[in-house]
Design goal:
This protein has helices spanning 2-19, 26-46, 56-65, 68-71, 88-94, 107-119, 138-141, 155-165, 181-184, 186-191; strands spanning 76-80, 99-104, 126-130, 144-148, 166-176, 194-203, 210-218. It is an alpha/beta fold. It starts with a helix and ends in a 7-residue tail after the last strand.
Amino acid sequence: MGKATTVTESDDLAAGAREFGIVLAPSSVAALIAYLDLLYEWNPYAGFTTITRRDAVRLHLLDSLALLPSIGAARRIVDLGSGGGLPGIPVALALADTAVTLVESKRRRCSFLREAVRQLNLVNRVQVIEADVKGELASLIGPQEAVVARAFVPPTELLGWAARLLANGGVVTLMSGGAGVGEAISSDAAAFGFVLGDSRTFQLPGGMELRTIATFRKRPVDCFT
């Protein structure tokens, strides 16, 4: 029964990713499902999620992979408030040439992240930093090309942190459950040196959940600060 469930999950994942224009290699699909296995193995101890495993492909993996079109060509990415590694680990597993930094403040969750990185053979390109996202991260990780995060702080607060981490032209992605998030905060974004790139609203494959992803690009300046 477990094997059949895994096959169904793999098919749903591959099909859902294709709806975003993403073609996952079989090895990537297998690694993403293995990541879910590990996440739910640790979940009783670390409290990562209340989402049932039956919905995890859609609400964890596809929800994370939906960011990829907005990330574009960025290959140095930081995931702020990573928790159980979402969206950072799925992004790293889908993009084999990407370096991802996972920033998380809770020690037990960082222990999980390091174990997941080890078991998923991501040690060479995914690092885990145990730190408060409100702290000075720029000196630890250097300028990044993209900042991603699931909705754990208000959008304007995330933009303020991202402004300190992004290289010129870098992007930050904001995800919400409704429409119009980009336009609603465009004036606030401008105060942090961002311009709205694009905003798209869609339903997650296989479900009715509505998502909007707005992409803000950091305006070029003379130097990174």
